[in-house]
Please model this.
Amino acid sequence: MAETVELPSRLAILPFRNKVLLPGAVIRIRCTSTRSVKLVEQELWQREDKGLIGVLPVRVTEAAAAAAVGTLVSPGSGSDNGERIVKTSADVFGDSQNQGSKSQEEPIRWYNRGVAARALNLSRGVEKPSGKVTYVVVLEGLCRFSVQEISERGTYFVARISRLDMTKPELELAEQDPDVILLSRQFKATAMELISVLEQKQKIAGRTKVLLDTVPVHRLADIFVASFEIGFEEQLSMLDSVDLKVRLSKATELVDRHLQSIRVAEKITQKVEGQLSKSQKEFLLRQQMRAIKEELGDNDDDEDDIAALERKMQSAGMPPNIWKHAQRELRRLKKMQPQQPGYSGSRVYLELLADLPWEKVTEEHEIDLKAAKEQLDCDHYGLAKVKQRIIEYLAVRKLKPDARGPVLCFVGPPGVGKTSLASSIASALNRKFVRISLGGVKDEADIRGHRRTYIGSMPGRLIEGLKRVGVSNPVMLLDEIDKTGSDIRGDPASALLEVLDPEQNGTFNDHYLNVPFDLSKVIFIATANRSQPIPPPLLDRMEVIELPGYMPEEKLRIATKHLIPRVIDQHGLSPSFLQIPEDTVKLIIQRYTREAGVRSLERCLASLARAAAVKMAEQECIIQVGKNAHQPTTSLLDTRLVDSAEVEMEVIPMDSRHDETDAFTSTSTLIVDESILEKVLGPPRFDNGEAAERVSSPGVSVGLVWTSFGGEVQFIEATTMVGKGDLHLTGQLGDVIKESAQIALTWVRARAADLKLSPAAEINFLENRDIHIHFPAGAVPKDGPSAGITLVTSLVSLFSRRKVRADTAMTGEMTLRGLVLPVGGIKDKVLAAHRYGIKRVILPDRNMKDLVEVPSAVLADLEILFAKRMDDVLEFAFEGGCPWRQYAKL
Ligand code: ADP
Model:
């Protein structure tokens, strides 16, 4: 054992920088400095007995440097703590400890206590070209010594030493000491505790346990302490603990301290682990997943998405203040986990910010008025006045591109070309076109967006439209602006006011967007069916351009010039395959459509085109089958052969393959005549004899009403039966129209005698009778006062059992005293009467001025009769005039 080692009186000295080798410990040193290499070569390598060397700690500090004096200091003259100061080259050190070597002439302090060590292993590295050799020495510490004197031998130092550790007999004696026994027990217990803690943690302490039982306690103390990472000072004090009691208590203290530090570290780890919240765990797992994905090359990662989003935002050209806002939001998003509640909302919001056309515009060429006019003429037939107004509008824009002209509002029944005119304007201006439908919008949020605090919030339709169109200067069509309503959710019209106001729309604030957006570059055009429902302030911002609806001749021109070529093209046909002669178009207009616009007409033409397309496809199929008639395998042919001999005959001539193309062309051109029309569109829906048929019995009169589809002809039927004098009204009527019926009945009852409806004024001709008035087309709600005169006419007809003239329609409000008051929608009503084939129209006298709006061609076809009082109406409504007028004192 080490304690039996006989120490020589002189030892070659290997300095050990800022570290201590303790007895029992094993260390590995790389020697590169010339002094150390010489020492190893001469003392350990070449000597046969491979003697011992002394490992002596040296201290190199700045303080030491400051205090450095003289050269080698002889024993006894060292400082109290046993240090000697020697000024020598740093070259003395074993280089493995010589990290960060200072200047060559560096003052160092030798410690005057060291440990004698034996080399367990020695290996010599390859000699470098510079002549340098490196040795790796494994040393085992054996026994403490004190330095008596240091001298140089050649290039290295040797020291005269004396042994410090006790010899074996001395030790045996000391171990009898009760204090030592107590201390060693204490040390062993602490050491045991440390081992078991380490065992739990690392499961490697098995061998150490064996040490505890076999190695003497004074050596154990050194071995344990040597294995800890402790400071240089503490290592030195351990080296100084020559006395057994001191050494044991010191070692116990150090082991205990180490144990405590392990425990504290463990506690902290447990605590931290406990605090790892669910989301942190998720985060860790996600990180792992990301790593796995990366390994798999699966890169559609959120982070990539966010980077892409950021790039998109950068290129969106947002104004600086909005860019700042967007960046703030992006920073928030980056901190969030994708599963977090606000993540997707925030992301969708940022996507919107990035998608909006902050600075993107379509290049506007200088407006070519001639080209614009040609474009309008090419797209639309007629509408001369409207086109002229549009050209004026464009001319102003040409002269002053940033002019804040009025917002055009096209007002007219459906299908008269409002939308297509707006899109023609867009193409004349070379701008993109976007249509925003406002029909049925009751919520202000539809225009302005919902605040982002709401679940499912989204931007308003305007911002959505701009995102869709992708430029900030489109032509934006606010379609059906008269159909917005207001309720508890706010008033969309007031939001539209802001949109259409050039003073305000530069900073339009959408609640969802929450930052201002510049709408001033947008050209707004509105459409409406009627101008009355548009709130006056909104109407005030717009210039109304009326499109009254088309006459049959105009419809015919529109159909032949525009609709038929378009429909044929849309269905992949050619004019050589489908021909719709003018007469047929006229029939369609008369019998299948009764509208102000041309939408139904277009639909009917499309039906014809579809029928032609089916025919053409079938013929192509037959021709192909004909070519391969010897192998009748196609299902079409199979079924035809089975189903119909007629078709079989069709196939046979083709099989002969003569005149194949002739056969095709001869049957290919589909010329639509009346019979084809009926086959495709069904029996006629309207005919001009309808009025005569319906008015064929007393009690029915013909009124004119206004609906959102323009004017309409409305029949009113009245009948009477046994009852108690009640008035029944049916046909989805509003309050005003019910009141009109009541007024009409009162007026008729009051005039019963004058009208010769009852023999005398006192006699109630309604006694034991109920009256029922019905407005057919019961599914359509009706209201308004304009049916007043029609109601009276039907009641008079009922009670007098005289038929009303079938060619006469009427509209007008009546007072209780029989005065006829003017009503609205005259133009549409007159046009409707004309469409219906009515010849005479009774209007309130005071509506005469409204006739200027009616096209003169229509007026030329009609006899307009003006009535001031109810008796005028009755005069006009009955054949031969009102027969009772002579008696009446109305
Ligand atoms: P609105 O917006 O008034 O309801 P649209 O603009 O949608 O009607 O028009 C319906 C169809 O009728 C469109 O295909 C349009 O091209 C066509 N149309 C309407 N008026 C004319 C016209 N004067 N000339 C040519 N086509 C027309």
